Amino acid sequence: MTKYYLLGFVLNLMLLQSCSKNELIEIEEQNNLSISVSDNTQTEFENELFDLINAHRISIGLNELVFESTSYYYANEHTDFMIANGSLSHENFSARAEQIAAKTGAKDISENVAKDYNSPQEALSAWLNSSKHRINLEGNYTHSALSVKPNNLGELYFTQIFIR
């Protein structure tokens, strides 16, 4: 049974994406793991980007993503981690995905990260112009949350988590 679980896990690996103006980092890793919606504590910037992403999804016939608070908590935690380390990463994604799945029942979880975009539209445009980021933005997900925070130099770091 463990063999089959491991095989299923490996077969369900999905692309994780990260992006900055200066560098694209592509990491392939995904947990097949899942959904509970609670209170929305997003910032105005995050809400605007979330709305732009949903407008894009609707414009191509996809469902709107619903804000998911557990994912927001972990997105914020990961954004803080990237800021503390001064670089983009998907480090600890498996643990993050397992925790989200355990708390929400999610079956699929993916993540985009980015850095150095100064407006929601600029960040969305960059993600849409990257085929691998677009996969997550236009993926078969039902819920999402994103965290956008500045470091001490005012450079913005982004983490968006997608689940279904």
From TrEMBL:
Q: Which residues form the SCP domain?
A: 50-162
Signal peptide interval: none
Source organism, top-level taxon: Bacteria
What the entry lists under InterPro entries is as follows: CAP_dom, CAP_sf
**Stored CDD domains:** CAP_bacterial
Q: What is this protein called?
A: CAP domain-containing protein
